[in-house]
């Protein structure tokens, strides 16, 4: 076989130098930022409520770790509930809308425009509708997740090339076969991009919605209370916990993506 | 008794556009193709060769005229899976391995996997992909991707192979080797092959008959019988008769071109 026609080399397990690994540089930057933060607080000694040092935040976190993780879990469950409902409805709506060019042309501009609507500002109204408990937060998160998921999924479902569709037609494939064997797999990268964005959106939505009221054992309410009585190290510790849940949520979706789309991961590495 | 032609095209026109602006992609094209022929449609861009192929495949509908494919209207022929189509781009699905790409038509047609697996393996071996069943499309070179797409078109054993500039995107060396492989496939499987190309040399090398088409409006300028003996090989390209035929096709295109400027 001639060189021009040889298969491309596979990505074998290559031994990279420690410094070249992709996570080393970001980790270094992170440590450097923390260290300079600690140093600056030591030198300039700002009031603790303005800017506590990382070590003080760490003390606060360690002192009430289980309680904070529990608050974080409660807030995460609101975020997850809203995520499942919002993204689920977004997916279903997209499947209906993508079937008709007329319908998607009619609805997509509204869905795209809704990106610039501050949905979280409707949290007080959600409390009026769904009560002060977790459901008002779930509702806000669901609305926030709905639109990006729907827009991306419609784009994904309509992204197959004309020839890829003509190929299916040449086999006299049914619409259902074209949907399951072509449109859905071509939509998956779009769907997962939206889901990854929605993990962050849902944590933000749940925490901010909690600022408008709710029970004390939730992160948003804890942050708001501790900050208002100037116990900012506690608020910072709660923010660290929020970051943990947000990142864990994000990477869970990344794992799901890799599992459902093995071909995509290989391609990215390539 | 002469057998009926496998493809019959009778005064077919295809006009695109609306009341304000129309483009005549094809005008009054008539052509009959016998079973087992390897016919090339050759001509410059805009001569309607790809349009004609898509009309036969029922991926487009004629504005006027009638097409018969294996005794049926094109739509009926498509539904009976009479042809396999090979596009200029390999059009492999990214999320399927080579083997699962080639199996796609069998899945769509609901043909039993066990029964057809042997044929699938044979087709993949025939196009030289025996060791690449589990590779994803991006792991293959352009030539190998197009081979996979040919295996896919043959997997369900259609009577006709419709090929729309399948080697147009390949480098010349790969293209010449793919030409040889296509002739092997044709001689092994006895398919009727309709091959669209803008390369005169490729058309002469492959075909038993060449249909020369010219643009504005797209129509058939001439048909040229290629009397080079099969099996053809690398020496065929150095045969004086090969050059005569290339020149003959070129002259036809030139006359049409000069006549219209």
Quick summary:
The complex is a heterodimer of chains A (270) and B (261). With 270 residues, chain A is mainly α.
What's the arrangement of secondary structure elements?
The complex is a heterodimer of chains A (270) and B (261).
Chain A: H1 24-44, H2 54-63, H3 65-98, H4 101-113, H5 123-130, H6 134-157, H7 162-170, H8 175-211, H9 219-228, H10 232-260, H11 262-269
Helix pairs in contact in A: 2-10, 3-6, 3-8, 3-10, 4-6, 5-6, 6-8, 8-9, 8-10, 9-10, 10-11
Chain B: E1 7-17, E2 22-33, E3 38-42, H1 49-56, E4 64-69, H2 74-79, E5 83-86, H3 98-108, H4 113-126, H5 142-154, E6 160-164, H6 172-189, E7 192-197, H7 200-206, E8 209-214, E9 219-225, H8 240-260
Parallel strand pairs in B: 3-7, 3-8, 5-6, 6-7
Antiparallel strand pairs in B: 1-2, 1-4, 8-9
Helical fraction of chain A? over 70%
CATH class of the largest domain in chain B, anyone?
Alpha Beta
Q: Give the CATH superfamily of chain A.
A: MetI-like
Integer tally of domains of chain B: 2
Strand order of the largest sheet of chain B: 5-6-7-3-8-9
Level-2 CATH architecture of chain A: Orthogonal Bundle
Number of helices, where a helix is a run of at least 4 consecutive DSSP H or I residues of chain B = 8
Largest interface, by Cβ-Cβ below 8 angstroms: which chains and how many residues each? Answer: A-B, 29 and 35 residues
Please state the overall shape of chain A, judged from the principal axes of the Cα atoms.
Answer: globular
| Average predicted confidence as pLDDT of chain B | 90
Q: Catalogue the unreliable spans of chain B.
A: none
Quaternary state of the chains: heterodimer
Indicate the structural class of chain B.
Answer: alpha/beta
Instruction: Calculate Rg of chain A over CA atoms.
Output: 23 Å
Please, how many domains of chain A? 1
Q: Tell me roughly what share of residues is in helical segments of chain B.
A: 25-40%
């Amino acid at each position: 076989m001639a060189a021009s026609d040889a298969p491309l080399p596979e990505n074998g397990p290559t031994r990279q130098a420690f410094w070249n690994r992709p996570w080393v540089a970001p980790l270094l930057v992170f440590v450097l930022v923390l260290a300079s933060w600690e140093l600056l607080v030591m030198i300039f000694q700002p009031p603790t409520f303005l800017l506590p040092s990382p070590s003080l935040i760490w003390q606060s976190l360690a002192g009430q770790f289980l309680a904070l993780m529990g608050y974080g879990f409660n807030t995460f469950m609101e975020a997850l509930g809203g995520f499942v409902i919002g993204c689920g409805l977004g997916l279903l709506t997209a499947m209906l809308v993508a079937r008709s060019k007329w319908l998607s042309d009619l609805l997509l501009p509204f869905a795209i425009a809704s990106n610039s609507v501050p949905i979280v500002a409707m949290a007080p109204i959600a409390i009026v509708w769904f009560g002060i408990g977790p459901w008002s937060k779930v509702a806000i998160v669901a609305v926030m997740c709905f639109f990006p998921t729907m827009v991306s999924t419609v784009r994904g479902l309509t992204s197959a090339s004309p020839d890829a569709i003509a190929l299916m037609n040449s086999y006299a494939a049914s619409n259902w076969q074209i949907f399951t064997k072509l449109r859905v797999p071509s939509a998956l990268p779009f769907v997962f991009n939206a889901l990854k964005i929605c993990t962050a959106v849902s944590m933000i939505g749940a925490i901010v919605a909690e600022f408008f009221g709710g029970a004390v054992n939730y992160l948003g309410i804890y942050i708001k209370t501790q900050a208002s009585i100037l116990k900012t190290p506690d608020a910072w510790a709660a923010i660290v916990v929020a970051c943990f849940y947000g990142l864990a949520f994000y990477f869970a979706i990344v794992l799901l993506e890799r599992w459902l789309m093995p071909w995509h991961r290989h391609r990215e590495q390539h | 008794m002469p057998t009926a032609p496998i493809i019959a095209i009778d005064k077919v026109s295809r006009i695109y556009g609306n009341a304000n602006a129309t483009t005549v992609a094809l005008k009054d094209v008539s052509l009959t193709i016998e079973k087992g022929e390897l016919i090339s449609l050759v001509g410059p861009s805009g001569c309607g060769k790809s349009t004609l192929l898509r009309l036969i495949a029922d991926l487009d509908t004629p504005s006027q005229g009638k097409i018969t494919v294996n005794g049926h209207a094109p739509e009926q022929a498509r539904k009976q899976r009479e042809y396999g189509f090979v596009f200029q781009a390999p059009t492999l699905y990214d999320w399927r391995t080579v083997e699962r790409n080639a199996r796609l038509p069998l899945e769509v047609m609901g043909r039993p996997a066990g029964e057809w697996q042997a044929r699938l393996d044979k087709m993949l071996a025939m196009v030289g992909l025996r060791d690449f069943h589990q590779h994803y499309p991006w792991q293959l070179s352009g030539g190998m991707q197009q081979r996979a797409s040919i295996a896919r078109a043959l997997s369900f054993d259609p009577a006709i192979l419709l090929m729309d500039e399948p080697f147009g995107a390949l480098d010349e060396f790969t293209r010449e080797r793919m030409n040889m492989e296509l002739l092997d496939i044709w001689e092994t499987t006895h398919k009727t092959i309709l091959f669209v190309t803008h390369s005169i040399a490729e058309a002469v090398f492959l075909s038993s008959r060449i249909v020369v088409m010219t643009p504005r409006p797209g129509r058939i300028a001439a048909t040229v019988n290629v009397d080079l003996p099969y099996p053809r090989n690398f020496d065929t390209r150095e045969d004086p008769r090969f050059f005569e035929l290339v020149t003959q096709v070129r002259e036809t295109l030139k006359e049409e071109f000069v006549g219209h400027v």
